[in-house]
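Q: Is it fine to ask for two folds in a single conversation?
A: Yes, each is treated on its own. Send the first.
Q: Here.
A: Result:
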Amino acid sequence: MAGKGCMDHILLLIMGAAALSVGLSVLLKRLSMPPVIAHMMTGLLIGELYGLRQDQTSLLQSVSEFGIVFLMFTIGLEFSPRQLRAMARQALALGGTQMALTSGVIAAILVFGLDIGGWEAAVIGAGAALSSTAIVLRELNDNGDLNKPYGRQTIGVLLFQDLSMIPLLLMVGLAARQEQAVALVAAETVLAALAALAVIYLTGKFVLGRALDAVSDLRRSEIFLAMVLLIAVSAAWLTHALGFSYSLGAFLAGLMLAETRYKHQIEAEMQPFRDLLLATFFIVVGMQVNIGFAWEHLGLIVVASIALMALKTVMTTLAAWRHGDHHDALKTGLALCQGGGFSFALFEAARAAGLLSEELFQWVISCLALTMLLTPRILEWVHQDGGGLLSRSRGADLGPDPARLISSDHNHVVLCGVDRAETVHLEKGHIIVCGYGAVGREAMRLLGELGHPAVAIDHQRSAVEEGAMRGDAVMFGNAANPNVLERAWARDAAAVLITLGDRRGKRLIGEAVSRLCQDPVIVVTAADGDEQQLLSGLPIKHLVRHNEEAARLLIDHALTCEVRQPYTPRICRECDDPGVKQSDCAAPLTPLSASERVDG
């Protein structure tokens, strides 16, 4: 019975957390607040309601850490060695300058102004310099500012910050072992890093591709998902066993898969796990906030938060000034003035390693949570040019666009090649063909002859490879998954053709397209009335019943002017030429009289 009581307690905890998270997300959505704030508030309330303390949430913390692991895995999928080299100029220069200035100034203030130890100050300065990728990118996308000059600068800084998490976590590990000789620690770290890189690289080059090929041939989504989870978790375990963070291995594993034909399907399969575990991570972070401490020091927390946002704005503005005019630089500074999810991960790792005291931990997470709470309103104000205060007075040469240096950018699609994946650029207004069977191949051929940009989606490896050999742009993935459609830029597509033969699959794809696009143009085939009934309720613009269309074409060809006896041939009355086919003349055709009939 004790076990039953424990299970009931766990179920009550899960139900309470889920109910609070969903309810607060709906409420805060109406206030233009991001879901991450709802998750943190859920954790704060759950911790107080259930009386949970740090020692009681250790298992939950371990589970939630894999939200960061899967996030780093998907970030690794966004990059490739070529793209990392391509973004090394502006994105790394701008991001590196911002991180160095902000973390250095904050650390100096903590050491010389507040008499905090060097390692503690370095960790707090580095964590406070990070910004929230999840909040900022979502708000910029919703406001339509991603492609504006300050939006591109913001993306460049966020890219660098995401990548900097790996060396920052390594820094925490080194700091935890500071009692050892620096040279010995450095040597051990280098050797372990080389070992991890070698194992993951060789496995990715010679094993992963063949393993994924074999799994994809089974055409079972649950087995494919299990394989992806095995890859991510195994790489995370390897690096952790060698003394590094779980996140490092996950990032390297994602990097190895970034240029494979399975990239988009892997991202689509991992997203639910990543988002759910990230939500759990922020709930656990909320549980760590001590309401009594926050209430007791509320005034100082507010002042410290405002000071942190002002300092980050100034430092980021100075870093961005040399890459654009001062208006765009100020907008970039304001967009990145908050703390981020990776900040919490870094501070949690530092506390676990004994680098941060409980009091310092409470101070930093309380301040960062408040800055994140204010971010959506600040970004909305920036979007409106601050009532005219932030309007641009002149253009600026921004150099290369950091937003176009990663594979997830506008109109990039990673496609299957025979030996390796290839990247194809699509123009806006392209057509998506769901299914690369007989009808799909013919549709792609006709679109190619017309010169219209198009991409096909198919979840069979053999079909994707055949498309690559034919020179067609074909993605590997399940078109019924909205995340796969999003990677094919369905929102920018002129139309979506559903050509596969599976009736249920057609319905699922139609539902996915209708959820993703506001006013989709869906063209689909149906074999009979039953299938047409199954597709009812979907926003289908055109439905082609191929049996009826085939019969109509057969009759059309049968009644042309080339037909001989015993049928009665017909003649075009406009051109008076018995040799004219019906398809060559739009004028109505009438039967020939007895004197006009052509002798067979």
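Q: Second one now.
A: Result:
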Amino acid sequence: MQLSKIDMNLFIVLDTIYSERKLTKAAEVLHITQPAVSNALARLRGHFNDELFVRQSGQMVPTPLTENIIERVREALASLQSSLNEHDAFDPQQSNRTFRFSMNDTSEAYVLPRLMEVIESEAPNINIESYTIPRADMVRAFSAGELDFALDVPIINHSDLVNTPLTTDRYVCVARSEHPRIASTLSLDQYMSEAHIHVSSRRKGGGQIDAYLGRLGLQRNIKLRIQHSRAARPIVAKTDMLLTIPESLTRGTNLQVLELPFAIPMLDWHLYWAERHESDRAHQWMRERIFDIFRE
């Protein structure tokens, strides 16, 4: 198969059908008719000599061939789009670009109110999407153009990604103000004897706190495991459970804020983006807005 004989727009259709799994939805996303999508799929099937998608229970299910090529197709499309964006003039007042972020609820609560305030005044047509992408999928998501930025701790290392520090925080422990056994200070024995809330998007496994306790030969009693740190503080306020969180999340609470009875490194937050977007002027503008938020 020769590339010069293929309409490159067909690969955009392929990617959209893969994402949407319905021809009607793909047509809506691409702003073309469903017959046009069906025609494009027929041409792709001819080029690849494969069905590419088969209809099952109302969904367009990708064939093994499609699964094998989709990531490379997405990487190629993202690279082409980045090349087109690199030297485009960027006017935030006119741009209708969508930026996609991977953040946890803590980062969303801190960043998005400030960022959306700036966007509302400086770039009213720009859209933001925020969701959590597992670290194992992060590089793939950046490569496929599914992600513009990620806020995370600096443990993701890949030559295709750039990262820069945003802020540093420290862990503290919080308890309700009327806790029957804890007041003002916290010993290691007290910490280990109380029940704890653990915040994690994963279904099992400990976190950084548990890793450091493990090095001391200790294991805390995790009574409640939840996904979102914002939900944990009201639970602490009404129970005797303890919660270990970044100090920045304790602002505006009536909880006791206690020093941890063991040493643990500071928590660093970094901003990640794909190296190919380094010269993208829209990306540069958004990066500066994010940096400004953390300079406040």
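Q: Anything structural to flag on that second result?
A: Two points. The chain has a mean pLDDT of 89. The first strand starts at residue 53 and ends at 56.
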